[in-house]
Specification:
It comes from Pseudaminobacter salicylatoxidans. The chain has 324 residues and is α/β, with parallel strands linked by helices. The chain is 45% helix and 13% strand. Bound molecules: pyridoxal-5'-phosphate (PLP).
């Protein structure tokens, strides 16, 4: 397991490479649930998501020889963008493999950062097969999006910032896909506040970690298009880190419909005046849907903002009347 000291070491390693993001109190959500609700504004992180924390820590942990070989990753978009950004700062080569499900705006941003792009197949598994091929063929160093100690420790730095900003936190709502974010935050928060509850939030359409936790081992689920595109993809049948950490550290996992996720995006825009992508909005959505029992101060993470802006406009317009 990743420990608090791993996470503190990651924080020192990535200081100056990421921005420590603000935590603000949401008046409307506080009124709605009857306890203080705080938003961790991580969608304002450089590259538009928390993924820069893990990617920066992973790159900073490479040897000079590994840096010279370059890095490769499969991604639903945000990890690729973060890795491409961090690699560019170091003058390193980065190859990012993505499926056709990754939105065009995300692919374009990665291209702009100068990374090599491979679009393969229609799932994260297909993209990962291309990564494995490139590792074998070209000797690139793989930096996985979640199942990697340096990545988990990097994402865990968010947990340190959460407890520092809201020491009285009782419940943390965290996005759950491959589980790097949830494992890192849970390891940090529970080391400092063992009584705090950590709740994972996924979409109903293809929640691989939830299915795996229910089964007791990593299982494959069909990947489907969803508004929360950053939460798509499996956890890897050979998962080494995040499955066990999520099993041991998460108190519960809740799932959301596409309509509930849309309502979360609309609420973030209308009431918090924040533009977030579907994955970024699931914490808000879970509270609005009444799917989380609240019995103390809540912190929820806005994890990313890299939504196609025309799609965002559509969601806002379609949810005009419903946004409450
Ligand atoms: C990657 C991502 C997640 C999920 O993180 P995991 O570590 O895969 O669970 C959530 N939100 C956004 C915006 C992401 O990019």
């Amino acid at each position: 397991m990743i420990s608090l000291s791993d996470i503190r070491a990651a924080r020192a390693r990535i200081a100056g490479k990421i921005v420590p993001t603000q935590v603000i109190r949401s008046a409307t959500l506080t009124e709605r649930v009857g306890w203080p609700v705080h938003l961790k504004l991580e969608h304002r992180q450089t590259t538009g998501s928390f993924k820069l924390r893990g990617a920066s820590n992973a790159i900073a942990s490479l040897s000079g020889e590994e840096k010279a070989r370059g890095v490769v990753a499969a991604s639903t978009g945000n990890h690729g963008r973060a890795l491409a950004y961090a690699a560019k700062l170091e003058g390193m080569r980065a190859v990012i493999c993505m499926s056709r499900l990754v939105p065009a705006n995300k692919v374009e941003e990665i291209r702009r950062l100068g990374a090599d792009i491979r679009i393969v197949g229609s799932s994260q598994d297909d993209a990962q097969a291309e990564v494995d091929r490139l590792v074998a063929l070209e000797g690139l160093v793989m930096v996985p999006p979640f199942d990697h100690p340096a990545v988990i420790a990097g994402q865990g730095t968010l947990g340190l910032e959460i407890v520092e900003a809201v020491p009285e936190v009782a419940t943390v709502l965290v996005q759950l896909s491959g589980g790097g974010l949830a494992s890192g935050i849970a390891a940090a928060v529970k080391s400092m506040k063992p009584a705090a509850r950590i709740i994972g939030v996924s979409m109903e359409r293809g929640a691989a970690m939830k299915a795996s936790l229910d089964t007791g081992r990593p299982v494959q689920v069909e990947e489907m298009p969803t508004l929360a595109d950053s939460l798509g993809g499996g956890i890897g049948l050979d998962n080494r880190w995040t499955f066990a950490m999520c099993r041991d550290l998460l108190n519960d996992v809740v799932l959301l419909s596409e309509d509930e996720i849309a309502a979360g995006i609309a609420h973030a825009y209308r009431h918090e005046r924040e533009i977030v992508e579907g994955a970024g909005a699931v914490g808000i959505a879970a509270l609005l849907a009444g799917k989380v029992k609240v019995d103390g101060p809540v912190v929820l993470v806005l994890s990313g903002r890299n939504i196609d802006m025309d799609r965002h406009l559509d969601v806002i317009c379609e949810n005009r009347e419903r946004a409450t």
